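Each letter names a residue; the fold follows as tokens. Both lines appear below:
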Amino acid sequence: MSDAPHLVLVDGSGFIFRAFHALPPMSSPDGTPVNAVFGFTNMLARLLREHVGSHLAVIFDAGRKTFRNEIDPRYKANRPEPPEDLIPQFALIREATAAFGVPGIELAGWEADDLIASYAAVMEKEGGRCTIVSSDKDLMQLIGPQVEMLDPIKQKPIREEEVLAKFGVTPGKVVDVQALMGDPTDNVPGVPGIGPKGAAQLVAEYGDLDAILAAAPTMKPSKRQQALIEHAGDARLSLRLVTLVRDVPLPEPVEALAVRAPDPAALFGWLQRMGFHSVIQRMGLTGIPAPVPAAPVSGDGAGDAPGDAATFGPYETITTLDALDRWIEAAGRAGRFALDTETDSLDARVATLVGLSLATAPGKAAYVPLRHEGTLEHPAGRQLDPAQVLDRLKPLLADESVLKIFQNAKYDLLVFAHAGIETIAPIDDTMLLSYAQSAGEHGQGMDELSELHLGHKPISYGEVTGTGRNRIPFAQVPVDRATDYAAEDADVTLRLRDVLLPGLRARKSVAVYEMLERPLVPVLAAMEQIGIKVDGVELRRLSADFAARMGEMEIAIHTLAGRSFNLGSPKQLGEILFDEMSLPGGKRGKTGAWGTDSSVLQELADAGHELPARILEWRQLAKLKSTYADALVEQMDPKTGRVHTSFQMAATTTGRLSSNDPNLQNIPIRTEEGGRIRRAFIAEAGYVLLSADYSQIELRLLADVAQIPQLREAFALGQDIHARTASEVFGIPIEGMDPLIRRRAKAINFGIIYGISAFGLGRQLGIPAGEARRYIDTYFARYPGIREYMERKREEARAQGYVTTPFGRRCYVPGIREKNSARRAYAERQAINAPLQGGAADVIKRAMVRLAHVLPESGLDARMLLQVHDELLFEVREDQADALGTLVKAEMEGAASFAVKLEVETGIGANWAEAH
């Protein structure tokens, strides 16, 4: 088979829709939307570059009407019109195909899938191979020993085993399954009530559709049997609609589809017109004289950087001070350069520089090795003295007229601070440039951004250091390989900045980046350096106490179970709960073991079963012991007695900060154990901790953005918002209100923000779901603006793929168009909550930036230590605590202006628990 012809067929019509939704919006120099065209172009370039076949063609749909509409006029009749931005891209896709010299094939009256099926049949008959570049399930019926598919986005092959995993049957039986289950999208009727699993079971038992329908009268009486009998005609019609025709007259013979090199001049001209400079570089067309330079692609933050036609490498290794001086001079002349560090640790605060790289223009980058160790096989060679290098760089890093560009700048600022360089400004951060306009749309790592925006896959860290047990420290990487890797990172970072910057304006994200994200970098870096003091003695005492309590709980749990078992073993716990105790609701996973995650245990506990409730308590205590009581002692700096969390600036969809090593976001607030852990966070002698917390900020934002007059009035009057809600919903006076009624209103208030269901509210309050539903309905009747707000946000997310905070931050909502109802409902809850949670995150970031400027000028001996959700924690000299409280309260409440006034509560104490 190695010498047999190999035909690659690209499902052009299918790919364009997938690329359109997979890639962020972008436009050509003349303003035409081109995100799907860019994805298609990259895919074609890859196919030609990798020579995956001997023959190649792109197959298109000639029109919406085919012979199937004559069989059933309803077929695909309800499909919506293509999105407005996609319509002009259909013609450009065909232009791209011609520019690459690839045959584009279509035939009136037939679908692209039928043409693909017919070409594949010819290849099978002639003993050749066929690869179909598509992920369309309708084409999976064609897969066989000589035919496979290739997912064009994931670049993963689809063979018989993948079809079996998806449909539960082999490719030859896919049409029978599809005929039974139907397809509402295409108006294929199928048999009502039969889904994928049921269809696969029937096919497995009876063989094919004809056999199933013939056997239906003798099946056990059931709704399924009745449906099969009543809808046998629909099933046979569906089979005709889903079965691909394999003998369509071929518009071009296979011989005419032989792969041929594109005309370089024609391809170059077309790519220039589109502004696809990175494709020009990858196709090796950079030597062709350029016509009048095309403007860079601009749009919603995606596209190619100006001038990025330069190749990635080769790069220079800087081993002399003279060479370093030349690069420093070039960076100064350029007025900007990208900078990246290579270190011996992921903890930037204590990491030592192994080397650094800089880029002054696309394709112009170099690496400065500082502490490579070398081996007998790969000597490190000449390296520069770190102190001399830093001394040379220091003026450039502090030069306000030269922009320093980083990817994840906070890490590099901390590395340089540890090396003795405190002043680096001004900066740009490509991670935050992207995050400010695309939170939740995709990851923000450099490699992912490079592939997405530059069409270039950088050398990975694992490629130069190895992986797993074979990984070596970066200091042992040969200098030539380190140069290739590190200098490329700086080069990519520089190019990304040019690509991403125009997107801020297009996506109306300039304020988010310039006023929140970028100025917050040095603020958080300083907080990480300061850290917070912990009481190691108290933590060890706490760990011992938790261990003793866990031991007592373990004995009680074993008594309830009737025997001893390993509480940390999900398998053993599942056997106890569902095999031995026969509790309801058990579900087995793929391995056959019972599921025992927290949601399963919580349902059982809510139903009144004591053992799962005790297990949940034991797990919570075990988590607190390992995550905090034990881990904080290990993470404490032995010199200072402080722990230094790392704030993650681009990890959430809403703009909220997260933290790790240690994670301080998840310490329980209202439990006794959480309070004891917070008591272990202490102030230095002579100092106290001051906590400043926004009061009910998300409810205040809800009252503002949803324009709820009753809530606005309650906040304006300083009323108890939960008592006011209880009064509105349950029709009772605020004075002398039963605390239980207020608690129910509080649960509704906060639950509504997170899109709580009647079942969820009922479980939380310990009442039937029906009663909880009545509460929610009454709540919406009293506050109709909230229901309108929720529906508005759902619609915005469905239409745009994102919602925005009051400050204009885009929060993308993956899954909002999911067919799976559970995943879609989760995404809808995200859409409702993201503007509120994200708005609160924006407010506290504004406050932090303000305070970072005000504190040094205040004359107070105070430092900002932590940010946890809506709270800021400070350390201040004891006699200045009240003055700091007044200052912080004023700055935080003045950080933003809404129809509902922000309110901040402050507390002072020797430890975090007392202050909070």
